[in-house]
Amino acid sequence: MKKNKIKKSAQFKAWYYKPENRLNNGVRGKRWRAANPEKVTKVALAYANSEWGYLMGLWNGIKKHHTNLTKEQFFKLAYAHKEKMGGWRSGYNGEQMTMQRLGSLNGKKQQKPCPMNVSVDRLDNSRIYSYDNIIFCTWKENNHKGAMSIKLMRQVLDIIEERKNET
Predict the structure, then answer these.
(1) Long-range contact list for 46-52, CB < 8 A, 24+ apart?
(2) Apex CA 66: angle with CA 64 and CA 71, to 5°?
(3) What pairs with residue 105 in β-bridges?
(4) Nearest partner of 162 among 88, 91, 76, judged by Cα
(5) Burial label, 142 (beta-carbon count in 10 A; 0-12, 13-18, 19+)
(6) Nearest Cα to Cα of residue 139 among 120, 125, 126
(7) Which residues, 6+ apart, have CB-to-CB distance to 50 below 8 Å?
(8) Which helix (H) or strand (E) holds 129?
């Protein structure tokens, strides 16, 4: 069985390393995507709404800003949060969070983003996105941080104190 696998691998390499085959393969893929835009959109939306795809979207959003996190550290932190909270729950008040990306299928676009979606928030906005400065919360809570209630302010201060004691 192993010899057969090696033989197939060698045959594929011989075929793939010919420039005309690689070129034709890329053109074929582009033609298929152009001919099947609804399938391409459906697959892309399914990926964006998956847990991994949604977290990749969050990572791609924060890596554009100043951060000292690597992708591996970000995902480790995200899954540690999920395990600690017993699912995707807000770090501030424990509300259940969702992962629904906006998208359009059959020309129907969702009107408003879901306020209960997962968001990455900086505890101290004057600092960069770092291991001890981010928390996962809902979009609603992240948007309300500018006009924060006393209750939410206490929760943020408690989390900051807890993080200081951990390190």
Answers:
(1) 48/101, 48/103, 49/99, 49/100, 49/101, 49/103, 50/99, 51/99
(2) 65
(3) 108
(4) 91
(5) buried
(6) 120
(7) 99
(8) none
% residues pLDDT > 70 (the chain): 86
Mean pLDDT of all residues in the chain? 82
CA dihedral 125, 127, 131, 135 (to 10 degrees): 0
The CATH code that applies to domain 36-166 is 3.30.40
Amino acid sitting at position 160: I
Q: What six digits make up the tokens of 118? A: 């997962």
Of 131 and 35, which is predicted with more confidence? 35
Phi-psi label, residue 110: left if phi above 0, alpha if psi -120 to 50, beta otherwise: beta
In this predicted model, what pLDDT tens digit does every residue of 100-140 receive, in sequence order? 877 655 556 655 678 889 999 888 888 888 888 888 999 88
Domain extent listing, the chain: 36-166
Compute the distance between CA of residue 57 and CA of residue 49 in angstroms, rounded to an integer: 10
